[in-house]
Amino acid sequence: xxxxPNANPNPKPDPILRLRxxxxxxxxxxxxHDVSFDVHPGEVTALVGDNGAGxxxxxxxxxxxxxxxxxxxxxxxxxxxxxxxxxAAALGVEIVYQDLALCDNLDIVQNMFLGREKRRGLVLxxxxxxxxxxxxxxxxxxxxxxSIRQQVSSLSGGQRQTVAIAKAVLWNNKVVVxxxxxxxxxxxxxxxxxxLVRRLADNxxxxxxxxxxxxxxxxxxxxxxxxxxxxxxxxxxxSNVTYSQVVELITSGRSGDLGLAHTNGATA
Length: 268
Known about the structure:
By secondary structure, this protein is of the alpha/beta class. The chain has helices at about 55-60, 85-90, 110, 125-140, 155-170, 185-200, 215-220, 245-250, and strands at about 15-25, 30-40, 45-50, 70-75, 80, 95, 120, 125, 175-180, 205-210, 225-230, 230-235, 255, 260. The model is unreliable at about 1-10 (pLDDT under 50).
């Protein structure tokens, strides 16, 4: 297949997050094998792979839940050590897991500031928190939430996902990882969430989208990273591949048309 030039003629910025030679085992089972992975600011990188390919383990390593057994973790051009979620958050890495970790009995503002409440002395600074929450939602052009004091229990699935994403960007994070953000959503809500995902990247954030839905992947991603049995089969520009080629990478770890076979992060 002849590679199609990227639609954006501007040179791509250096990766904000760069992993090299990552290994991870649990006992005798090696889950990640020599994985390399790049994430660029202003782009959506779709992380795809079959069940058991290693996606969740890789993301938990990025987020500091698991430590790597070997390899290098680079952030903004510097090699770093990340051994806890707190250390990942200090860099500017936020992960929105599929369960969203929202409290139904709290409202939107309370959820967005949970554990990070603003105070004036010993008193909660509700005015500041409301203002910051409203500014964050406005900055993401969120129009589906009628009141920031609405209880999360009353929100739809798409609105909950929006709140979780807004919470992730509230603290000036630089990399946002979204784990299956459109799972169990209807067509209209999926479209709203995908618009928000694209808007995050357009605002300059580096977004990692984990998804099994190829329609979603091709709708919003700039790059696709395909894991196969714990190895990075390829990391390619979305504009350079077809649906069937990505499925082949996911199911066999290779794509004959691309000339790739267990290339561990080769970029096409």
